[in-house]
Amino acid sequence: MKEIEKAYEAKMYEDSIYKMWEESGIFSPKVDPNKKPFTISMPPPNATGVLHLGHSSMLALEDAMIRYKRMQGFSALWLPGTDHAGIATQNRVEKNLLAKGITRQDLGREKFLEEVDKFVEKSRGTIRSQIRKMGASCDWSRERYTLDEGLSRAVREVFSRMYHDELIYRGSRIVNWCPRCGSTLADDEVEYQEQNAKLYHIKYQVKDSDKFVVVATVRPETMLGDSAVAVNPSDDRYKDLIGKILILPLQGREIPIIADEHVDLEFGTGALKLTPAHSIVDWEIGKKHGLKEFQVIDEEGKMTKSAGEKYAGLFAKEAQKQIIEDLIEQDLLVKTEELANKLSVCYRCKTAIEPLISKQWFVSVDKPIIQDGDKKKSLKEKAIEVVRNKEIEIIPEHFDKTYFNWMENLHDWCISRQLWFGHQIPVWYCDDCSEVIVQADEPSKCTKCGSEKLTRDPDVLDTWFSSGLWTFSTLGWPERTTDLEYFHPTSVLETGYDIIFFWVARMILMTTYALNTIPFEKVYLHGLIRTREGKKMSKSNPESCIDPLDMIDKYGTDALRLSFLIGSTPGNDMRLYEEKIAGYRNFVNKIWNASRFALMNIDNEAFESPFTTDDIISRADKWILTKLQYLIKDVTEDMENFRFSDAGTKIYNFTWCEYCDWYLEISKGKHLNPKVLLHVLEDVLKLIHPFIPFVTEVLWGNLNKDKMLIAESWPVFSKDLLFVEEVEEMEILHQIISDIRSVRSEYGVEPGKKIHATIYSGKYKNFLEEKKEPLMRMARIENLTILESGDKIDHAVCVFVGNVEVYLPLQELVDVEKERARLQKELDNIKPFAKSLESKLKNQSFVSNAPEAVIEKEKKRLFEVQQQIEKFEKQLNEL
RNA sequence: GGGCGAUUAGCUCAGUUGGCUAGAGCACCUCGUUUACACCGAGGGGGUCAAAGGUUCGACUCCUUUAUCGCCCACCA
After folding, report:
1. If we measure between CA atoms, which residue out of A495, A506, A448, A373 comes closest to residue A57?
2. Which residues contact A846 (CB under 8 A, 6 or more apart)?
3. CA within 20 to 30 Å of A34's CA: A360, A441, A622, A639, which one?
4. Dihedral angle sign, alpha carbons of residues A148, A154, A160, A165
5. Are A529 and A521 in contact (CB under 8 A)?
6. At residue A438, does pLDDT exceed 90?
7. What per-residue string of b and e applies to A179-211 under the rule 16 or more CB within 10 Å gives b?
8. Closest among A713, A707, A709, A711 to A699, alpha carbons compared
9. A570 sits within 7 Å of strand B by its CB
């Protein structure tokens, strides 16, 4: 017998429990050929960040999966780490420095990187401790960081292999350029913002003619770099002009009028000015027609010499103003329209993107390279194939459409970034013979001429290049480590659907290339966490924005975890608010108190010997054990199928509604069976442990266990513990008590007042005799008479439970009118139902088409319902 | 323009391959400190499952159309 605190205080236990787990070494699985591996690579949080709701929901889900599999006997590896997040981190540090009036250029590359490292070290410490706060049972001994030597080596190795396979090439192409970051961006790193733009209609004169073609543009400053004007070949307005020459205003350059299908007849004037150097679409059209490119804007967003002396050196915006003025002066501006369009901006700093032509490194996604049988497949084809043939399964399934759509439209991926922070590209240029040397390790001299004068490419790689290798670079690749052999491919990738493209797709591309295998078998996509109003959680509305650390402080980690797991389904966004978390805190406390009750009522010897079937005594025992078996079966299935919400809900209901409200209540007094009480509690603690690890572990510790709960094995469904008959009986008892309580309440019987009752029990006589005590206690009855059958009792309210008749002689309280109304209400309720069942069973097509089981069920129900009606009617008539 | 998702009780959400008179939590109403728990217990009210068609013996579930909201992709210069 033991007494624990009246309420669970999470703060008192969480840190020490985590410490106990971590120090025990259980987070670090061994490579064990006798066990099956189960692996999750934790999506590495950015090295800049603090824990937000997205992280905590991810951690709750992944930890639940890992703990479940660990308990099932898998060698479960959850590998944690952090991502250096190139642009984001560099921007952050630059901003911090700028507050002190220092630019990165002031420091120089080396010093600046030292600053970044200092910042990252601190930031990683924060995120590590916050991951621990969430109770994440990840293997810290295998923690990785994308800039670790090992991972960097993997990055260089992959780059080098891809280069020599001609999958990586350097070329001048149009790229998305962020003038603020001073770097290229990948296509999917560009975001769009709604804006109200002005559409300028500008006249271009046809050479040797007084005719004009009017073009419409929102960026008149790019006209200085125009190479042509395109019209749709089917556009009657311009048919005759195709092939003619125009004089480009302000520049005086001659440019052709060309025909291209791409031009939209409806938009603007139907004449499209082409600036191949500063528009991605124009560049593509330009390629088709062999147009020249004139770069008129440079990397800083300033006009170049090609823009003409008057404009050179001006920022694009300034140049625009000047150009408009100049056009007006020459009477070339026809009109200005308002236009709602989308501005492309950098996803990191929201600066307007400047498309321009630049020499960059690209990954070719279309070149056939991966050997697959006797065919060679491109990165893209292979990445599509492994999802299409279900080698990789996406949950929920419908996201594969999104994936295919993106993959099918994927263009070559620009991977070089003009940043300082990141993996520097493993390319060296020989200053003497111009040889390009690409290899994983730094060369000491030129492989061609032997010169030692080598210059390394200053650019770094896109962060997603290294993240793309995450599942295997973290396991030691390119070495053939035992970890890699054993734990890869990983089992599940759990992440938000918002980074399917950035990350999931790239991991698939990179892994199928580098290892010729998939990175993971399943992709579980969670939704975004939103405010109660359904808005995105952002610092701009602190009102409904929730900080997970505050919630942990207030309600405990378990409550927070449960609120992510219950009520959310894969791929769907979820609203989170404080009351929800408080509700789960209540549940955590309920479990605490159920255990408290057990501990107070069980003496030491019950803890000593393990539970066996010999310990089963009462029908209540059999009932709860049966229910427990179904729970184990259901929950295990749900966990296997990633239905965490269902699993959680079922355990919640079992624990609260069946174990606490009925089994424990019935157990009070003489009927308490410590062995069964304890056994059920133990299994419940095991089943819910992956969801709420802290409180369950604390309670487990109180049950005199020598092993930690985290290390226990998952409960197994046992047929020997199924007792169908007893379940039926217990449900009768349940119903009798509920009905009596209902009548009491309806008749306004004071809760404390005890009443008399007579039960005509039919075949349940023995059973009800056995349960007489709890029945009387729970329904507040004194003088309970149980007979097999008997005559109707006057001045008594009667309720029917199956064939059992319960009479409550409430004497003066029984009001004939009230009783009539009550019975009538029951009848009104039940009669239409009986009718629908009848007609259903009379329906020939139902009887011939529906499965046997369904028909039997309906027949049984009709029989029961008819009996009920009979009884109610008899009662009503005799009133 | 293309695609995806959502629409179920006042609120937040479940509802697995079609087969309970559609469920839970919160909120609400009535009552209550009976020796685990007021972070509690007992009882109760509340839904024509967005709309209309269709398939089926049977539709919240499948199909078509529509409406509203949300997201993603492509982009009109």
Report:
1. A495
2. A840, A855
3. A639
4. negative
5. no
6. yes
7. bbbebbbbebbbeeeeeebebbbbbbbeeeeee
8. A709
9. no
Q: What is the ipTM of this complex?
A: 0.95
Could you give the CA distance from residue A28 to residue A81 in angstroms, rounded to a whole number? Answer: 14
Provide the token pair at A590.
Answer: 């309920």
Residue A413: name the closest of A355, A362, A467 by CA. A362
Q: How far apart are CA A647 and CA A689, in angstroms?
A: 12
Q: Are A666 and A694 in contact (CB under 8 A)?
A: no
Q: How many CA atoms lie within 13 A of A49 on its CB side?
A: 18
Distance A863 CA to B35 C1' (A): 44
| Residue located via tokens 């770099």 | A225
**Count of Cβ atoms closer than 10 Å to residue A30 Cβ:** 9
How many C-beta neighbours within 10 Å does residue A601 have? 17
Full-prediction pTM beyond 0.90? yes
Pick out the nucleotide with least CA–C1' distance to A220: B77
Nearest to A29 by CA among A693, A561, A519, A711: A711
A232 alpha carbon, distance to own chain's centre: 45
Q: How many CB atoms lie within 10 A of CB A754?
A: 14
The continuous run of DSSP H or E covering A229 comes out as strand A228-231
If phi over 0 gives left and psi between -120 and 50 gives alpha, with beta otherwise, what is residue A390? left
Handedness of CA A172, A174, A175, A180 (dihedral sign): positive
**Phi/psi at A527 (nearest 5 deg)?**
-85, 180
**Is the Cβ–Cβ distance between A256 and A241 less than 8 Å?**
no
Among the residues of A660-794, which ranges form H helices? 665-667, 674-688, 693-702, 724-746, 765-770, 772-779
How many Å does it take to go from CA A575 to C1' B18? 30
**Axis crossing angle, helix A693-702 with helix A674-688, rounded to the nearest 10:** 150
Report the candidate in A132, A24, A59 with the shortest Cα–Cα distance to residue A712: A24
Q: What percent helix, strand, coil does chain A show, rounded to 5? A: 50, 20, 35
CB of A423 nearer than 7 A to strand B: no
A835 touches strand B (CB under 7 A): no
The model's pLDDT over A342-383, given as tens digits with 9 standing for 90+, comes to: 888 888 888 888 999 989 999 999 999 888 888 899 999 999
Give the pLDDT band (50/70/90) at residue A273. very high
User: Do A760 and A804 meet the contact criterion of CB atoms below 8 Å apart?
Assistant: yes
Alpha-carbon separation of residue A699 from A143, A458, A585, A592, A763 (angstroms): 30, 57, 15, 7, 42
Query: How many angstroms separate the first and last alpha carbons of chain A?
Result: 53
What is the tens place of the pLDDT at every residue in A840-851? Answer: 898 889 999 999
Residue A27: Cβ within 10 Å count: 23
The structure tokens listed for A220 are: 């008149």
Amino acid at A25: G
Secondary structure (3-state) at A165: coil
- What is the three-class DSSP state of A168? strand
Helix/strand/coil for A160: helix
The gap between A748 CA and B29 C1' (Å) is 15
Which H or E element spans position A630? Answer: helix A619-640
CA of A537 to C1' of B49 (A): 30
Structural contact between residues A372 and A363, judged by C-beta atoms closer than 8 angstroms:
no
